[in-house]
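Narrative of accomplishments. A recurring question from our advisory board has been how the design workflow behaves on a single, concrete structure rather than in aggregate. To address it, we present the structure tokens for one chain from the evaluation set, followed by the sequence designed for it. No filtering or post-editing was applied between the two.
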């Protein structure tokens, strides 16, 4: 891993593309089964309603036949007893008078006179002695007959309904009158209603299944499209990551070569500065300038060696460092930039008591703070303000850099530490400052956070463990 770039190299074979969720076949089967069950339930309810209505219709039909039987019984009683209670006509004559109420093939009237074994027709033809005997004994007003009994009476082979009534012509002489009518029309209406209900349910089920199938097809098409887009997005993202990793690796190799080549010129600069210090002993101003050149050249060498250590994955030194000294050292290195842009730089601490020390490599941590301060300075307008605060909490030391500049978006803050990512204009930034800062902080077991401020501006925070906590990890 190239720690300078903070990118881990991956290969397409070890990074399978995420697969978008697909519609399981079992779920499709459950949907179809559920739809069929719903259709069957609707069909069952429809048929039950048809049967219920038919039963009610047959009950009404039976009550109608019972009323007709009572009417015929009253008519027969009038013919047999007369107005004064004396017989006015014979039974045959009275039965002949009732024949006009019969409807061939639709309605038949029957009479059970006293002393007869059972019902007989109005023409005197006897029927089965057991015909309607049980219903008569129970005193029922109507009964439903099987189609076979209806055929025996000359009715169509359909269920029939018998209405019954009785009267007493004289003490001990009870006449029973039965009117049997075919339920052909009621049965036909029931069949028609059943077929209509079945047809309606079939049409509704077909429409539901067709619409459900179309919706399921569209959903599957949409899922396939989402899957293809997800795979393509993963492929593009992987290629971008590989490209960044390749650029970072190339830059790391180039940086190692450059820093190696710079070591010799820096050594020469340090040597010449030492000679100038010796020769300018009498010139105070020149002596100071030579000493600054010498100090900065030494610092450049230290920074170069520290960055090379990061590239080679070497642990930094674990010196005990004062947070206040780190802040003063970093501010001293950038004061000329702030002065040139007329930007105010202020240092604050959260307490008057000494802050807990941290462990690390001084020039690397100072360089991390320098990068944050320079970014804040570049983001500020003329006469802007940058504040460097230091505080301690939860066994941690926090270095917080805030500015009142243009600010940063949430999306840019999330990518701010990616190598080569920058929000600065072209030619003003390579996008490596925060990436290097993050690697420096990570090598010291700390963390770096970038976020926008609600009132405007940006907040960059370095969090480092206190020296005791770091020491407990083996430093």
């Amino acid at each position: 891993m190239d720690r300078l770039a903070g990118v881990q190299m991956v290969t397409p074979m070890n990074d399978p593309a995420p697969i978008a969720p697909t519609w399981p076949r079992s779920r499709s089967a459950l949907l179809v089964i559920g739809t069929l069950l719903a259709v069957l339930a609707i069909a069952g309810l429809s048929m039950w309603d048809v049967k219920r209505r038919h039963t009610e219709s047959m009950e009404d039909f039976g009550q109608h036949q019972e009323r007709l039987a009572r009417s015929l019984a009253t008519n027969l009683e009038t013919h047999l007893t007369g107005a004064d209670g004396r017989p006015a006509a014979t039974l045959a004559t009275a039965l002949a008078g009732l024949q006009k109420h019969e409807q061939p093939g639709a309605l038949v009237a029957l009479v059970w006179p006293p002393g007869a074994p059972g019902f007989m027709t109005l023409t005197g033809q006897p029927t089965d002695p057991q015909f309607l005997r049980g219903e008569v004994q129970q005193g029922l007003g109507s009964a439903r007959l099987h189609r076979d009994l209806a055929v025996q009476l000359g009715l169509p082979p359909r269920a029939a309904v018998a209405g019954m009534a009785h009267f007493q012509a004289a003490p001990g002489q009870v006449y029973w009158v039965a009117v049997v009518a075919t339920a052909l029309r009621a049965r036909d209406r029931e069949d028609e209603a059943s077929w209509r209900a079945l047809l309606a349910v079939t049409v509704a089920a077909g429409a539901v299944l067709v619409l459900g199938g179309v919706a399921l097809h569209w959903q599957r098409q949409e899922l396939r499209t989402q899957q293809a887009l997800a795979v393509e997005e993963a492929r593009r993202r992987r290629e971008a990551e590989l490209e960044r990793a390749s650029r970072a690796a190339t830059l790391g190799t180039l940086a190692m070569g450059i820093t190696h080549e710079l070591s010799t010129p820096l050594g020469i600069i340090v040597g010449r500065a030492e000679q100038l210090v010796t020769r300018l002993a009498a010139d105070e101003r020149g002596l100071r300038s030579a000493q600054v050149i010498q100090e900065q050249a030494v610092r450049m060498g230290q920074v170069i060696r520290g960055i090379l250590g990061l590239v080679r994955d070497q642990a930094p030194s674990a010196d005990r460092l004062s947070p206040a000294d780190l802040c003063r050292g970093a501010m001293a290195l950038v004061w000329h930039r702030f002065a040139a842009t007329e930007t105010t730089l202020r240092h604050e601490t959260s307490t008057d008591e000494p802050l807990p020390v941290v462990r690390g490599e001084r020039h690397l941590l100072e360089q991390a703070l320098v990068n944050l301060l320079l970014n804040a300075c570049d983001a500020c307008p003329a006469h802007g303000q940058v504040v460097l605060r230091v505080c301690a909490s939860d066994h941690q030391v926090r270095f917080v850099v805030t500015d009142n500049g243009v600010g940063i978006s949430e999306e840019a803050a999330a990518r701010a530490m990616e190598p080569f990512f920058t929000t600065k204009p072209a030619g003003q930034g390579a996008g490596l400052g925060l990436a290097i800062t993050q690697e420096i902080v990570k090598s010291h077991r700390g963390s770096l956070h970038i976020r926008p401020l609600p009132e405007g501006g940006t907040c960059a925070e370095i969090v480092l463990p206190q020296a005791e906590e770091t020491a407990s990890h083996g430093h």
